[in-house]
């Protein structure tokens, strides 16, 4: 990558930065101090800061950025800091933009066959559910993705890049910083349906808190396998079961505390033994991480359950969204529980830098995260933990509410009964 000036020269024919107000001259020294602190603290705290970029290269990138400060707006500076953090090349070293006063345009997207589909919306835009995103402010989505790709945070491989693009394509400050919008107050998202009909929605951003509350309409409601929950820790961690097919399903989206996991896991252990459950499905597909030692606590309890079919009856569902601790636990469950992994490759890599720490820049108070450990959850490096049974999502099944990976597991269980 090069400096802002190089980028402007290289892509001048296709885009320009927004005309947002440049940083006040009185703030330049503070930003220089923050940029220097960024490198100094990462050198102190990161386990191996220069594993992919040399100290000389990082210093040059940051020096160019400091010289460019008078011509940048704050959002342009934000995306440049994000771009430079990506050069460090591990998904836990990031500019934590989400902890700032960030606005989100009220859409949630998922990627199918390389296209972004609108899968969750507010009441005002429910008529657009299932439409494909084609442009933002008349910039074709292909160009939007080209500009976003070197900037989006939390990327470890091609799988997490796909996920991060789908989530960060709705962040107002990032879109302004890469020149897609002119400011952060409004954007025009253009969609087409499968018949080729086009619609444009002019939207304003909302806060993270309001974003989750506003997005009330999905392609289809979330489903509870086997109809009802048998054991519940929270909406992000629960179990359902079907005694007739001797199968239980654990939805594992967020990590609880050690004590809460111990209580939940003990209840699971008792239930599985009492009901003579033979097959267990653990779903990590929406889990972005936490503390993998908490997940190991559940594994310890599960190993005590003699009723389970330890040769063929344990399954773990994974996806491109399975990241950090969830990726780690998926790899560990393959070893500890003899689990068969079903779904997509994970967004986190099983060999690489993880375990997130953080610090704040002294003047802007931007939060910077970094990797504290280097883990090897398998012998050889792969782009994500690879599933034993690869089942990628397709739009036709998704829009019909068909969970293909889970359906495959249930059919596999049925064959063994």
UniProtKB/TrEMBL annotation:
One Pfam short name: Peptidase_S41
Chain segments annotated as coiled-coil in the UniProt record: none
The protein's name: S41 family peptidase
Signal peptide: 1-22
Stretches assigned to the Tail specific protease domain: 309-390
Superkingdom of source: Bacteria
InterPro entries recorded: ClpP/crotonase-like_dom_sf (IPR029045), Tail-specific_protease (IPR005151)
Entry keywords, A to Z: Signal
Species assigned in the record: Microbulbifer epialgicus
């Amino acid at each position: 990558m090069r400096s802002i000036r190089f980028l402007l020269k290289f892509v001048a024919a296709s885009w320009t930065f927004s005309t947002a107000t440049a940083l006040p001259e009185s703030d330049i020294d503070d930003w220089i101090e923050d940029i220097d602190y960024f490198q100094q603290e990462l050198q102190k705290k990161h386990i191996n800061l220069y594993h992919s970029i040399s100290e000389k290269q990082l210093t040059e990138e940051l020096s160019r950025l400091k010289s460019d400060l008078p011509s940048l707006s704050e959002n342009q500076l934000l995306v440049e800091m994000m771009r430079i953090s990506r050069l460090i090349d591990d998904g836990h070293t990031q500019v934590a933009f989400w902890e700032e006063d960030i606005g989100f345009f009220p859409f949630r997207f998922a990627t199918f066959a390389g296209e972004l589909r609108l899968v969750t919306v507010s009441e005002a835009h429910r008529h657009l559910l299932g439409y494909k995103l084609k442009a933002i402010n008349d910039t074709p989505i292909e160009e939007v993705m080209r500009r976003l790709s070197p900037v989006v945070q939390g990327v470890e491989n091609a799988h997490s890049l796909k996920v991060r693009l789908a989530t960060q394509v709705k962040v107002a400050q990032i879109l302004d910083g890469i020149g897609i919008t002119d400011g952060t107050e409004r954007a025009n998202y253009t969609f087409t349906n499968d018949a080729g009909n086009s619609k444009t929605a002019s939207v304003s951003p909302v806060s993270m808190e309001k974003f989750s509350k506003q997005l009330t309409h999905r392609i289809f409601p979330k489903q509870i396998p086997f109809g009802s929950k048998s054991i519940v820790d929270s909406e992000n961690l629960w179990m359902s079961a079907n005694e007739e097919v001797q199968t239980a399903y654990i939805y594992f989206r967020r990590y609880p505390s050690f004590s809460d996991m111990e209580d939940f896991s003990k209840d699971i252990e008792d239930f599985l033994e009492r009901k003579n459950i033979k097959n267990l499905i653990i779903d990590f597909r929406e889990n972005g991480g936490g503390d993998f030692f908490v997940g190991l606590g559940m594994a310890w309890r599960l190993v005590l359950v003699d009723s389970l079919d330890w040769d063929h009856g344990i399954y773990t569902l994974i996806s491109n969204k399975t990241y950090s601790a969830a990726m780690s636990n998926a790899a560990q469950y393959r070893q500890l529980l003899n689990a068969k992994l079903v779904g997509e490759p994970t967004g986190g890599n099983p060999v690489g830098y993880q375990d997130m720490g953080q610090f704040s820049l002294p003047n802007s108070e931007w939060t910077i995260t970094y990797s504290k450990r280097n883990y090897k959850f398998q012998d050889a490096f792969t782009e994500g933990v690879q599933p034993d049974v690869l089942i990628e999502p397709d739009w036709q099944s998704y829009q019909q509410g068909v969970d293909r990976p889970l359906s495959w597991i249930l059919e596999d269980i049925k064959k063994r009964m």
